[in-house]
């Protein structure tokens, strides 16, 4: 009980002590609490990190092994492949060697044979020369033929001109224009003119019309050149010469064939037509120049005018020395020396 | 009394005849045409085509033909005047003189344009003309063939119409006639028909034309030969088969003599024929080469001028394009020299272009070919063609292509040297490229390249780094010691002088 009393006596202090302690505890509680949290957080953190580390370590291990497997697999493939390529290249090289030599041989033998091409080109060269010379010959021939033709035409043209202008030739007394007396010899044209015949006058051709009833023969045109004949066949045939003659013979129909059945009527019609066109005057027109008068002889002449009998009755001249005088001419005046000098120039057409 | 009555008719007929004859006479001079047209000559001539007197009909047709011949307006007027049906109708009925005149009118109308020719065809003229081809008289046949040819020459449809009318066999018969004019015109008509399409040419060939045409190639008549060669070349140009058929007619050694003909057009047409045959296949070209054709053509190019030599130039190009062997044959036949002469002599662009093309075809096969071309001093001329200010676009492209082809094969350095100095960059690239390929392997060439100043020139070229040109230049520079390259590079003297300045003599 004493203890009880002592306690009761000491109750105030006890209470104050309790309060003090409580206050003290209350004061430190926050600090302790934060400290405890800190410790806990550190510890938990450590644990979690350790766990994570553990996990990652596990993952690394797995990955390590898996990657190793993959890489080894890949590497094996690579090695295999490269070996293949290596082999391939090697064999290709060998094949190329074979092909090279074969192709070279083949080409040299069959495709591009150097010697055969050389031979070909040489042959071609010769052929070309041949062709060239042949063509040159050909063109030369042609040129020669052409010039010959041209010359011939020119000659003919000149001949024709000369014949046309034949009147320009010198005569005995009158020198022509191509024969100048002042030149030592006449010009070339003069000789040409002397050598050709003068051109004949154009004959007036009666132009028959095709259906002229009075026409006795048809002037059918036989072509100048007919196709050549075949050689004479064996048997009773005519000679080719005869046949040729026959072919070029002009067409000569008999009178009966040549004459139109209506020729009489046609001729009459034509006459009538002509009459109709030229019906001005029935009398033929006579020019004055052809005025013909009967010769009236003079009263006191003795000679008879009329035809001579020369050539019909007698053939020689009757009085050959009729006009001859046996005495030379005499010059009445002395000769003029200067005329003598020029005398030579009065040429007889040539010097 | 009756005489007086008759006299009136006589008078009328005489004056009609006189009128028609005078008009026909006047229509033959171009200066009268306009006056005649203004005077309404068409409407006056039309009734005279139906005149009872045949002479007047013929002369009226002749006058109409002359008018229609003059220009296409008048031809149009003839068509509009409904004159053609009359003509076609009477073409079947009348005598040969009238037929000739009517065919002349049809020809004169058809010649101007495809439309007018079509209107002639629409009138049914073709059948009548084909019937005229069966006529006995060569004059009628001639004018009918002429009209058919003029109709067919415009386009393929009209030519087809002529073929459908059955003209071809008759034209082939006409070729065989003895008359020269008829032969000429029939050959010309066949040529006009053939030129449009392979089918038409095949029709003509099927009618057996080639054999007859081939027979006439040695005919002395120049005009006939022109037409014959024209027809053959028109046949041969379409396909290999047709060309082979032409060749099979054994024309070959014979036509070469015609290259020496005195007539220019004969020569030109022969060369065209050879070209048309050669262009198809290497085999045909080979055949021509073996026959000595190339040598003949080369001579012909040397002898002729301007447009006449064009087909020959093209023929050489075609032959050389086929294979290197054929190109070698052209070179052996001295073709390159003639082409070079043609290239420098000719003034016209299209001939130069053809020559440039042919040279390019010859030189593109191998270094050997390119050397043969380069030795003929062709490259500077080609370059000149390419650079000339007034050159046509075609010539420029052809010259450039040829240069490129030849340069890419050329290893003949002396010929390349001059190009270093005056070629533009796009050509220079190829030139320097060739040098860069050859120099590393040829010591003599290296030496020559330095002494001739080529190296110096190369150093002066301004090339963009990384371009092909700069690569080539580097390749060339690598062939030489560094000092030489430096020595020749521009600005080296300055560098030397600088070194002199910086040099401190040891005292």
Q: How is the biggest beta sheet of chain B arranged?
A: none
Shape of chain B: elongated
Output the structural class of chain B. Answer: mainly alpha
Proportion of β residues of chain A?
A: under 5%
Rg of chain A is 75 Å
What is the chains' assembly state? heterodimer
Low-confidence stretches of chain A: 211-217
Number of helices of chain A: 8
Give the termini distance of chain B in whole angstroms: 152 Å
The average pLDDT value of chain B, as a whole number, equals 91
| Count of discrete alpha- or pi-helical segments spanning 4 or more residues of chain B | 35
Give the distance, in angstroms, between the N- and C-terminal Cα atoms of chain A.
Answer: 216 Å
Shape designation of chain A: rod-shaped
Approximately how much helix is present in the residues of chain B? over 70%
> What is the number of E strands of chain B?
0
Report the strand count of chain A: 0
Largest interface: A-B, 16 and 18 residues
Quick tags:
heterodimer, A: 351 residues, mainly alpha, rod-shaped, B: 79% helix
Please give a structural write-up:
- Chain B: Keywords: Cell projection, Cilium, Cilium biogenesis/degradation, Cytoplasm, Cytoskeleton, Flagellum, Microtubule, Repeat.
- Chain B: InterPro entries: ARM-like (IPR011989), ARM-type_fold (IPR016024), Armadillo (IPR000225).
- Chain B: It is found in: Cell projection, Cilium, Flagellum; Cytoplasm, Cytoskeleton, Cilium axoneme.
- Chain B: One of its GO terms (molecular function) is microtubule binding.
- The complex is a heterodimer of chains A (351) and B (507).
- Chain A is an all-alpha fold.
- Helices cover 58% and strands 0% of the residues of chain A.
- Chain A has helices at residues 2-9, 11-111, 114-164, 188-195, 240-248, 255-258, 263-277, 337-343.
- The longest helix of chain A has 101 residues, at 11-111.
- The N and C termini of chain A lie far apart (216 Å).
- Residues 211-217 of chain A have low confidence and may be disordered.
- With 507 residues, chain B is an all-alpha fold.
- Chain B is 79% helix and 0% strand.
- Chain B contains 35 helices and no strands.
- In chain B, helix 13 (180-194) packs parallel to helix 16 (222-236), helix 16 (222-236) packs parallel to helix 19 (264-278) and helix 21 (293-303) packs parallel to helix 24 (335-345).
- The model of chain B has no long low-confidence stretch (mean pLDDT 91).
- Chain A binds chain B through residues 117, 120-121, 124-125, 127-132, 135, 138-139, 142, 146, and chain B through 256-257, 259-260, 262, 289-292, 294-296, 299, 325, 328-329, 332-333.
